[in-house]
Amino acid sequence: MASNLPTVVIVGRPNVGKSTLFNRLVGKKLALVDDQPGVTRDRRLGEASLLGLDFQAVDTAGWEDEDVKTLSGRMRQQTMAALDGADAALFVIDARAGLSPLDEEIANWLREQEVPVIVVANKAEGRAGEGGIYESYALGLGDPVPLSAEHGEGVADLFDALRPHIEFKQPEKDEPFDPDSEEDEPLGPLKLAIVGRPNAGKSTLINRLLGEDRLLTGPEAGVTRDSIAVDWEWTDPRDGETREIKLIDTAGMRKRAKVVEKLEKLSVADARRAVDFAEVVVLLLDATQGLEHQDLKIAAMAVEEGRALMIAINKWDIAENASSLFNGIKEALGEGLAQVKGLPVFAVSAITGKGLDPMLGAAFELRETWSKRVPTAALNRWFDDAMLNNPPPAPKGKRIKLRYITQAATRPPRFVVFGTRLEMLPKSYERYLVNGIRKTFALEGVPVRVNLRSPKNPYDANKGGGGKYSGQS
């Protein structure tokens, strides 16, 4: 899905503050920032606003003078590709360090492009940046904009410089959404996160879906560091309909004991936030390695966050003993993730494209299930039958009374059971209710939450009054 906002690309050599500026413009810490150069490797997009001027900001990898076959060289190619179709470029230099030969090389390349370029002299707070500001005039790209991306100084000057290039492309403002207009917020583009251990082929899979080398890939483990979101339109081969998807690539998640570098810890935390943002999570397994304990931990995390989860076994084109591998993984998932029944499992290949369309079709269906609302009348008819077939126990002769059930929310489906003495209800009976809801109302493959709530007793809080207990699956 193409954005209707003008596009502004941030370029520059490593460690001049591009990601800090990106975060400042989008108003969130979306890009990882660290003193170590080369943190950003893929293009990252975010909706930015600068004093009412709206645009899509693009953070890029630091420009390095390396052979295209190296990781740094492939990163530079991603930066060059980002400028295609852009409305303006912000060329960031380090005012405190002054100009370098690499700055001059980038400036020479930018002068050959048709995109308007604004030189941003970052880290210009105080007098230490004055020399770099004066030096930047020699780049031949016009007056520099002194700025401190970290402290927010100079944004008004940046607004003045950027405004002539993108003001005419400002979109019409949408009417504000009325939260009372519908019971549930309408479904938009499918937010689909691809997660897994390093080198499972996550970025390669997304590039295959997009039909271009949009994300940086390579044999090196841990190439992806940021969680990268890409808007995309997929044509469903079943009906020819075009469906919008926001694909989210994430950093590989290794065992906690192996995550020792500060940067990798930031990357894993970023991947966890991506899971929280997603609607459907695809756990990508490596067919050459099978299902490992770390995979189950990643899956459990997605379920705990309430996301709809599906499994894709990648590198199927080179899998050995494919049938036994597939059945073994399904059996292990059933044992290791007993709290979620009926997880969809797909055999795919990011290289050949095998199984990707069925996987995407199932992802949309899974989101529908995840967003399902069960009619209250049907829910309580099932509830009465469930208690008739298996009445709640009476521990120590005290009767547990379950009165009625209602669905409190969707995404994931959440239900509230009202009754008395619910603090005495065994966990096994909660699982009985959860499994019954899942089976009866076709909620396989998604987390189901059940909260237990007792009526408030204003006279004695110790007699079951005001208690709130929860069970989930």
From TrEMBL:
Composition bias (Gly residues) maps to 463-473
Where on this chain does GTP 1 bind?
Answer: 12-19, 59-63, 122-125
Q: Which GO terms describe its biological process?
A: ribosome biogenesis
Q: Where is region (Disordered) located?
A: 453-473
Q: State the superkingdom.
A: Bacteria
Q: Where is the EngA-type G domain?
A: 6-170, 190-371
Which residues are listed for GTP 2 binding in this entry?
196-203, 249-253, 314-317
GO molecular function list: GTP binding
- One Pfam entry for this protein is KH_dom-like
Q: Which UniProt keywords apply?
A: GTP-binding, Nucleotide-binding, Repeat, Ribosome biogenesis
Gene3D superfamilies tied to this protein: 3.30.300.20, P-loop containing nucleotide triphosphate hydrolases
Task: Write out the similarity annotation.
Answer: Belongs to the TRAFAC class TrmE-Era-EngA-EngB-Septin-like GTPase superfamily. EngA (Der) GTPase family.
Instruction: Quote the subunit structure annotation.
Output: Associates with the 50S ribosomal subunit.
What the protein does comes down to: GTPase that plays an essential role in the late steps of ribosome biogenesis.
Protein name in UniProt: GTPase Der
